[in-house]
Amino acid sequence: LRMRVAHVVCETPSAFVADAEQRSHLLRKALRFCTERLRSLLNSLEISDLSEFSALALVCSFATLVSSYSRGFSLIIEPFDERAPTVANPVLHFNCMDSSLAIKPVFQRFQSVIITSGTLSPLEMYPKILNFYPVIMASFTMTLARRSICPMVVAKGNDQAVISSRFESREDAAVVRNYGHLLAEMARVVPDGIVCFFPSYSYMESMFASWYDQKIIEKILRYKLIFLETQNAMETGLALQRYQLACENGRGAILLSVARGKVSEGIDFDHHLGRCVIMMGIPYVYTQSRILRARLDFLRQQYQIAENDFLTFDAMRHAAQCMGRAIRGKSDYGIMLFADKRFARHDKRSKLPRWIQEQTQDSLLNLTVDEAVHHAKHFLRQMAQPFTREQQLGLALLTQEQLEAKVAHQRQAAQDRPTSA
User: Are 389 and 397 in contact (CB under 8 A)?
Assistant: First the structure.
């Protein structure tokens, strides 16, 4: 009965439980123990194959969650699926709006917690959305013996047309052509593997279809093979295997992927597997999503985080995660191409990690495709020079003498520290 709605309904867990109690006389306390009681029942019956009860387990989990949390969650009931708006098919979304609920048990259990990552930027946002007060908050640079990453912002094509993934310019023929020309030129000059990220699957598919019609795909295939990430995990796994094989045997390959996908967050492209990473536009999340709108409202009301601040923070965090695929160690090197004019703006660049900002030169913030190719060739020529482990000692690596001196200093500091009676 509750799912029979004529329009979209958004409400809190408390309101949903109160309505359920009024309609079916189900008490909140009884709902809260649904998951535990189902588990106890299955154990008593000695049922080993739980796959048959997955749907029932899902309903019990929902009942437990919706009755356990009065804040930080939202329920959205839609009368139909957006993909088939003419068919009555109610959909219920139960989503966590408050990230602090996930990390709260960690803070309660441990006295000291260290949160560290190469993409925690800007640092000021995390205490807000995770609802804690940091004792120490610091951002560190990378200790590199040479300039092993080359971040560049490609803002326009050779025809001076602005490059951007803004929604109103996505169908612009000049933008599509210049993105394709950029990829083709980088395929020509960069050895081994190139990983290219798009803001969404639909944008990647649309761009690929246009490049195929414009014969750009044919041009790229002269230099490298092309593999695509899909929403099917098995297909993506096979594409990754073939991509790695093409890089290993010297043929070279390009992997077209999506920010927020499997490739952007869980796969390492070390050394020759990722000599260049290209971000085709800023990966903003779909802003018309009702779930996102509900979370933005929650963040604004609870933590006074402005909508635009969170959207930009989220997009730049994912862009940094994608770009981090380019360098996976002190001896690695790679090119980072931010292909969107908006990346040159200070309000966008300032939200990138410090180690990327420090390697970004002002002269590389407003490049054309040909200028980016020229700088890429120069960078790769420098990286091709002999580089030994000895050259890293004292800079990127500690020498034996420095390590012994550091240990001795720590021992002396421990001895000098006063002991309590």
Answer: yes
Q: How far apart are CA 38 and CA 63, in angstroms?
A: 12
Calculate the alpha carbon distances from 226 to 76, 208, 241, 326, 359 in Å.
Answer: 40, 11, 13, 18, 29
Q: How far is CA 98 from CA 116, 205, 311, 321, in A?
A: 20, 33, 15, 22
Give the residue carrying structure tokens 């326009």: 156
Q: How far apart are the C-alpha atoms of 318 and 321, rounded to whole Å? A: 5
Residues facing 91 on adjacent strands: 78
CA 345 vs CA 28, 316, 394, 399: distances in Å: 51, 12, 35, 40
Strand order in the sheet with 334-339: 149-153, 334-339, 276-280, 193-198, 253-258, 225-228
Query: Identity (one letter) of the amino acid at 407?
Result: V
Phi, psi of 393 (to 5 degrees): -60, 135
Distance between CA atoms of 345 and 343, rounded to whole angstroms?
5
Give average pLDDT by consecutive 10-residue segment, the chain, 421 residues. Answer: 74 84 82 89 85 88 87 84 72 87 92 87 87 88 80 93 89 92 95 93 93 94 94 90 92 92 79 90 86 88 89 90 81 90 90 88 92 94 79 70 82 71 42
Within its chain, how far is the Cα of 209 from the centroid?
25
